[in-house]
Write a structure and sequence with these properties.
- The chain is of the alpha+beta class.
- It is built from 17 helices and 21 strands.
- The strands form three sheets. Strands 12-13-15-16-17-18-19-20 form an eight-stranded mixed β-barrel, surrounded by four helices.
- A hairpin with a 6-residue loop joins β10 and β11.
- α2 packs antiparallel against α3 and α2 packs antiparallel against α7.
- The longest helix has about 60 residues.
- It is rod-shaped.
- The chain binds ligand C2E and calcium ion (2 copies).
- One calcium ion binds next to loops.
Length: about 550
């Protein structure tokens, strides 16, 4: 079997598109990994963490608020009972250090905690729950907040909240080292509490982008993403989760193992696919079938001349395989295989269509030309007749008498050939001229002549090459010419390369010649140019 070069086998559309797919798939998976896994998961984590924190803070503030309302509702004077109540609340609510009640002059009038007589921090009157800035609580030597509300009697009820406790709530969230989590009071510039490193400029920009009526906002600033969630119950409170937006590079370094596995898998798939394709395409049958689909077979025409006038009177249609990006292949490379795989009929049909359409398109050049078509004898059947009918319908300007069919004698002598013989007879009745190709080179006897009539014989170049030599072929040639004359068959001599051969053949009464002396087989375009040129010369 003819070996087919590698680059041909992998250049078909299917191989290329699947290969491309195999190449692009990992990229696609990686982008998914980055966009869906990393980006979305991070976003989800950020918003879950922020919501959880808001929830915890809300719960704590609810308790505080409840305690302050209760204190204000029951307060009339600072009794032991009041102070005990304060102790109980401080004990029950995590993060609360103690309680204070101050009057309008900011003097402490009741407390379970503050030993001072007055407080310095500004606490603008608020009938809802308000928060002070974080500040240094001198008496206990650490930072804290005041959560407070003003009662109807002008007294302010304060819960002292430890800053450490808020930080503890934040730190519990287990955020990545490079992320930051902040509890914000929307009126304050600095966060109430912070875990991780949060650049102030980034935070400021995020605040600007933060639309206050949205409960949840996601802002992207430079390399950062910030998820902001504000509290339902305390509209001033919000939580910001800040992280570096996962870049492709981050995903690359985070998923090294997966990516390596992906690439190895890709290579593996690629090799598997190419080996599979190579095996498949290396089969000549597949290659020929693909070539037929791609219309790669084209007819070359070699002129057949009147041996006396040298005028072109017809042409033999010879198959060429114009493979994509490669040299033209000659029939001996593929015709035997096409016959073996029963693809020869399709090829002949493709060639004939192209040659017929050339004849039809150039009546001024070839209207009186015959076209000689090679038919493989093993593939002559009823379909040959119907194909011919089809061609006649498609190319009505071509006469059946213009068609010559060249059939080799191989197989004609066998019993099986009965059907072939009948078809040949039908073809002749339709008006085609049928001739024997390579006459004399076959091993079969000549008995088929007794029940088959032919119109012409073609003498193979082997005999023409023997002209003037003293060998068996030359004797055979003379015998063949005599036989043809006695059977009144036209003779076409093939492979005429020299003037001497032509002269000798003409002297023997041979009517037609074909060979490099006149012209080689050529593509249709070249054939056309030659004919135009000849016309111009004769005019
Ligand atoms: P063939 O039918 O005997 O065709 C003649 C071959 O001799 C052609 O070779 C032609 O190019 C070559 N030839 C013509 N003049 C000369 C010359 O002066 N000197 C030399 N040395 N060679 C010359 P090609 O085209 O390679 O075809 C080879 C064979 O392939 C053909 O032999 C024919 O048997 C087969 N073939 C070609 N086309 C078809 C086709 O469409 N169908 C079938 N079934 N067989 C085909
Ligand atoms: Ca031939
Ligand atoms: Ca021949």
């Amino acid at each position: 079997m003819t070996k087919v070069p590698w680059h041909f086998t992998v250049s078909d559309r299917k191989t290329i598109s699947v290969s491309l797919l195999i190449m692009l798939l990992p990229l696609f998976i990686f982008l998914q990994m980055w966009a869906i896994n990393d980006k979305q998961q991070k976003r989800l984590f950020a918003s879950n963490t922020a919501s959880d924190l808001i929830y915890d803070v809300e719960v704590m503030f609810d308790h505080l608020n409840g305690a302050l309302i209760n204190l204000s509702a029951s307060f009339s004077a600072c009794t032991t009972e009041t102070v005990n109540q304060m102790y109980r609340y401080a004990f029950d609510i995590p993060g609360v250090e103690g309680f204070l009640i101050i009057n309008e002059q900011r003097s402490v009038i009741c407390s379970n905690w503050h030993p001072d007589q007055s407080i310095e921090v500004e606490l603008p009157a608020s009938f809802g729950l308000s928060l002070s800035k974080e500040h240094f609580l001198r008496s206990v030597g650490k930072n804290g907040f005041f959560a407070y509300r003003t009662g109807a009697n002008g007294l302010t009820y304060i819960a002292v909240v430890s800053a450490t406790h808020l930080r503890y709530l934040l730190n519990q969230r287990n955020i990545a080292l490079t992320d930051a989590l902040a509890l914000l009071d929307n009126d304050e510039e600095n966060p109430l509490s912070l875990s991780g490193l949060l650049s102030n400029t980034v935070l400021q920009q995020a605040r600007l982008a933060f639309a206050s009526d949205d409960k949840k906002t996601i802002v992207e600033i430079d390399d950062f993403s910030i998820t902001l969630i504000s509290s339902d119950q305390h509209p001033n409170l919000s939580v910001a989760y800040l992280y570096r937006t996962p870049t492709i590079m981050v995903t690359l370094s985070d998923h090294k193992t997966e990516i390596i596995l992906l690439l190895v898998g890709q290579l593996f798939a690629f090799i598997l696919w190419l080996t599979h394709r190579f095996k498949k395409l290396n089969s000549m049958k597949v290659q020929l079938t693909m070539a037929i689909d791609r219309q790669e077979f084209t007819p070359y025409l070699q002129p057949i001349v009147d041996i006396n006038t040298q005028a072109w009177v017809g042409a033999e249609m010879l198959a060429r395989w114009q493979r994509h990006g490669q040299d033209v292949a000659y029939p001996n490379e593929f015709i035997p295989l096409a016959e073996k795989h029963s693809l020869i009929k399709k090829i002949t049909k493709q060639l004939a269509q192209k040659a017929f359409s050339f004849y039809q398109d150039h009546p001024e050049l070839v209207s009186d030309f015959f076209l000689s078509i090679n038919l493989s004898p093993n593939h002559i059947d009823e379909k040959t007749i119907s194909s011919l009918h089809q061609l006649r319908k498609s190319y009505p300007s071509i006469q059946v008498s213009q068609i010559k069919l060249e059939i080799t004698e191989q197989g004609l002598g066998t019993e099986k050939a009965q059907n072939t013989k009948q078809i040949i007879e039908q073809l002749r009745q339709m008006g085609c001229q049928v001739g024997l190709d390579d006459f004399g080179t076959g091993q079969s006897g000549l008995e088929y002549f007794t029940h088959l009539t032919f119109d012409f014989i073609k003498i193979d170049q082997r005999f023409v090459g023997a002209i003037g030599k003293t060998n068996v072929d030359f004797h055979l040639l003379k015998t063949i010419i005599q036989l043809a004359a006695s059977l009144k068959l036209d003779v076409i001599a093939e492979g005429v390369e020299t003037e001497q051969q032509a002269e000798w053949l003409a002297a023997q009464g041979v009517r037609y010649a074909q060979g490099w002396l006149y012209a080689k087989a050529m593509p249709l375009s070249e054939f056309k140019k030659n004919l135009i040129h000849k016309k111009a010369v004769t005019l």
